[in-house]
Design goal:
Radius of gyration: 34 Å
Distance between the termini: 101 Å
């Protein structure tokens, strides 16, 4: 009895006392201490043993790899036995099955402890309690992994719905959304919002948007911009809730679109991005897209639609779904870069470029030139806003085709163009001349600099200086730049480009030759 008491006291001294090791073990359940590797390392130190935690398939989860008797390890891993003890030469080995979080008899993991000394009562007790803590940590990790997978799948579905809306496939978008968010896209119109914050806090910002909108909106982490969250909100309450959210989060900004048809989600997204640029300088850090005088509103509507339909007529030879896909991709590609468009649509940038090139070949447009890009986008946006010229499917064939100079030659348009470009004349640096040369050089600063006899950095500075004067973004391209290019076309300062297939009778010839 005296020897047993002395042995027990020696063991308690070796392990720091029952209370000490128990308190240390409980410390691994605190939020800051929940780590399988740290717990296994603690067990190895405390029991003066080699410790291994492996999953049921033999994969190492923590600790060091320990050679095992395969049949015994399989019995514990499959749950045929809860634990096992064996002696392998000079080693004493214990195997303990950690129950799997999901129903079933198989163990979720196997804890293996090997030491040269036999397992006394205290060592066995420490091992048993540690196995219980490991079970709790594995259960927590399983739940966390399941929750992460669910959040990932949900985020992927939200992105898929947005991508369907971007290519005007509202039927499929509603079908996907109906299973998870019934009624979300029942309305025919919606507004799009873009919230900008830091890339590091984007996930938390997206979760906050989901909580704030409470099922009233589609919330998507922007696939193109790391700091952006996109929100499609059919309900009128969404904007107010997002404004409150932004107001409580310094360093975040909100840009919103006007209400658009769901099929024009891409247009609404463009408006939201434009409004976001304004929000960065607004005291409330939020802004809604302001409708300004658009050049298309100063044109004869029938003439505009006739001209647009005639330019896009070669696309009518394509199957409807192919045409819709090409048009949607090209509209986004003319507004943003190919890389950003690819991320938004979930395709490769080569696919984006191939689709744009095909549209360009069909309509006979060299989209590398800003003037051509401006006119192509003008025609595509006209069709998107008004739908096909003839709902029955027949393209118009007017006796008197609408010529582009006639379309751009109205007095109202000339007044608009002169007023817009006239803002540049008050600057002594000849911003207007630099901008004209830059557009003629396909928006290439080096080429424009050679034509003007100045440094390329001077060209960039002049273009950048013109942006606040014109209240339009120029260096990033898109609608703002295209409107300025259109103004130069109207005033005649930039030459009108040639558009249309080389052989109108074979509109697709350039693609297949």
């Amino acid at each position: 009895m005296a020897g047993r008491s002395e042995g027990g006291q020696a063991a308690q001294q070796r392990y720091g006392g029952d209370r000490d090791w128990a308190e240390q073990l409980l410390g691994h359940l605190r939020p800051a201490g929940r780590d399988l590797r740290r717990l296994v390392a603690w067990l190895a130190r405390t029991t003066r043993a080699s410790v291994c935690l492996q999953d049921a398939a033999g994969g190492l989860l923590a600790g060091e790899r320990i050679p095992l008797d395969a049949p015994v390890a399989a019995d514990v891993a499959t749950g045929r036995v809860a634990s096992a003890a064996l002696q392998d030469g000079a080693r004493h080995v214990r195997l303990v099955g950690i129950p799997h979080p999901r129903p079933g008899s198989a163990a979720g993991a196997v804890l293996v402890v090997a030491r040269t000394d036999p397992f006394d009562r205290h060592t066995a007790e420490i091992l048993g309690h540690t196995a219980g803590v490991l079970e709790l940590l594995l259960r927590e990790r399983e739940l966390s992994d399941t929750g992460h997978r669910l959040r990932r799948v949900t985020a992927d579905l939200r992105l898929a719905i947005l991508q369907l809306l971007m290519v005007e496939d509202t039927v499929s978008a509603r079908r996907v959304a109906a299973g998870l968010w019934p009624g979300l896209l029942e309305e025919d119109t919606a507004r799009v919002y873009v919230i900008e914050g830091s890339a590091a806090a984007r996930d938390a910002l997206a979760d906050a948007c989901v909580d704030a909108t409470d099922g009233l909106a589609l919330v998507v982490r922007c696939p193109a911009m790391d700091g952006h969250v996109i929100v499609v909100g059919p309900s009128g309450e969404v904007e107010e809730r997002l404004r409150f959210l932004v107001a409580d989060r310094p360093g975040t900004f909100l840009g919103g679109s006007t209400r658009q048809r769901l099929a024009l989600t891409a247009t609404a997204y463009t408006q939201a991005v434009t409004a976001l640029a304004v929000a960065r300088f607004h005291p409330a850090r939020s802004a809604v897209y302001a409708e300004r005088t658009r050049p298309e509103r100063l044109m004869d509507p029938a003439a505009l639609r006739t001209w647009s339909a005639a330019l896009l007529r070669p696309l009518d030879t394509l199957p409807h779904h192919v045409r819709a896909e090409l048009v949607a991709t090209t509209r986004l590609g003319l507004e943003f870069t190919a890389v950003s468009t690819a991320k938004v649509l979930g395709v490769s940038r080569n696919t984006v470029r191939a689709r744009i090139d095909r549209v360009a070949a069909l309509i006979g447009a060299d989209v590398s030139a800003p003037a051509v890009r401006a006119l192509a986008q003008f025609a595509l946006n006209t069709e998107a806003a008004h739908g096909p010229y003839d709902p029955g499917g027949a393209a118009p064939h007017p006796r008197q085709p609408v010529r582009l100079p006639d379309l751009l030659g109205t007095g109202a348009l000339r007044d608009w163009a002169r007023s817009l470009l006239g803002r540049l004349d008050g600057d002594g640096r000849d911003l207007r001349g630099t901008l004209r040369a830059w557009i003629d050089a396909d928006a290439n600063a080096e080429s424009a600099a050679r034509a003007l006899g100045v440094h390329a950095q001077t060209v960039r500075e002049h273009v950048r200086a013109a942006e606040p004067v014109l209240e339009r973004r120029l260096l990033t391209g898109g609608t703002d730049l295209h409107e300025v290019v259109l103004a130069f076309l109207i005033t005649g300062e930039v030459a009108t480009p040639r558009l249309g297939p080389a052989n109108p009778e074979q509109p697709d010839a350039s693609v297949h030759r």
